[in-house]
């Protein structure tokens, strides 16, 4: 899209498609709920109606959670790609999700923690420590931050934390059932009590990301260029890192590691909105929410009466796309 008018039109269409996706998410599942029941559940709730109870207690919370996580992971991925100047960067590829997951498994299996507030802080701590380690390893050398080194560092940490997580579960098999479904990335059985404690952190991350958009446009030109233009590069990178930790760590605390959303969506948003992050980030938030909502609906329907964890669905969708991008980058080099 070239002109500002076209970008506004695309944004409005995206919001309408997001609203439609949310309605689809509320309606379809093991039980298909009629539009009249959905309307009544939202505006004239009757506890005697089983369909309305399902909408209020299961479908609506699940829809809000999917939209929030999809938007968060997509925006976090776009920020990471801007900071690292690497189109393959995302919370899942650079080990952020793996670090957060390891911290939560440690808390659940060995410390017996189930309070979402404590798990949130464990997730943020795990993702934050991982982000720092990846940045340090990716910056070693006279050339500074290298896109290739940061990917290699992320892959190494994914292997390390994945092995650590498996080791924890082997040592404490009694905790396996508590985390195995969560580890695949799932929003099944999540309710508003899970989302509410985390939502303020996600909101802060979204707002901070949009405020950083103009600075990201400069940073993506390269550190030396950004410094010559008067940008305090270290502070912008630090602020961006905090935003990524809040968005990715908060998402993992709710639903576990859901991969590849942070790669697919920024690429699509860049194609639709261009490279200006002031437009690209809102597009990421909308498209990310739509993608995870529709992936979750597909996860419910694909093997009825059972359902697939949504993390498996996003992996199935995203893996071919990731391979395509990787091959494209290799050809470019």
UniProtKB/TrEMBL annotation:
It is found in: Cell membrane. The chain crosses the membrane at residues 12-35, 64-83, 89-111, 118-138, 150-171, 192-215, 235-268, 280-302, 308-326. InterPro entries: ABC_BtuC-like, ABC_transptr_permease_BtuC. The keyword Transmembrane applies. GO terms for biological process: siderophore-iron import into cell. It holds the Pfam family FecCD. This is Iron complex transport system permease protein. It comes from Fontibacillus panacisegetis.
């Amino acid at each position: 899209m070239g002109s500002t008018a076209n970008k506004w039109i695309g944004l409005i269409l995206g919001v309408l498609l997001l609203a439609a996706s949310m309605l689809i998410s509320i309606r379809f599942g093991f039980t298909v709920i009629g539009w009249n029941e959905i309307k009544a559940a939202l505006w004239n709730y009757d506890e005697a109606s089983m369909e309305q109870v399902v909408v209020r207690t299961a479908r609506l919370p699940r829809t809000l959670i999917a939209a929030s996580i999809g938007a968060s992971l997509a925006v976090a991925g776009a920020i990471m790609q801007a900071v690292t100047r690497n189109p393959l960067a995302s919370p899942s590829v650079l080990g952020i999700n793996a670090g957060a997951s390891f911290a939560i498994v440690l808390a659940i299996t060995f410390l017996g923690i189930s309070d979402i507030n404590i798990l949130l802080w464990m997730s943020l701590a795990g993702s934050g420590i991982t982000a720092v380690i990846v940045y340090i390893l990716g910056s070693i050398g006279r050339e500074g931050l290298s896109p290739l080194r940061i990917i290699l560092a992320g892959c190494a940490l994914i292997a390390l934390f994945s092995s650590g997580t498996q080791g924890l579960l082997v040592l404490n098999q009694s905790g396996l059932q508590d985390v195995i479904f969560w580890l695949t990335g799932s929003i099944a059985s999540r309710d508003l009590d899970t989302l509410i404690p985390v939502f303020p952190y996600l909101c802060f991350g979204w707002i901070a990301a949009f405020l950083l958009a103009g600075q990201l446009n400069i940073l993506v030109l390269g550190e030396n260029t950004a410094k010559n233009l008067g940008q305090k590069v270290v502070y912008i990178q630090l602020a961006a890192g905090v935003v990524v930790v809040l968005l990715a760590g908060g998402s993992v605390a709710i639903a576990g590691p859901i991969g590849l959303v942070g790669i697919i969506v920024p690429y699509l948003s860049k194609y639709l909105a261009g490279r200006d992050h002031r437009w690209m980030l809102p597009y990421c938030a909308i498209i990310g929410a739509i993608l995870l909502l529709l992936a979750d609906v597909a996860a419910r329907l694909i093997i009825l009466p059972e359902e697939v964890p949504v993390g498996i669905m996003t992996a199935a969708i995203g893996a071919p796309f990731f391979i395509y991008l990787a091959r494209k980058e290799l050809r470019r080099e």
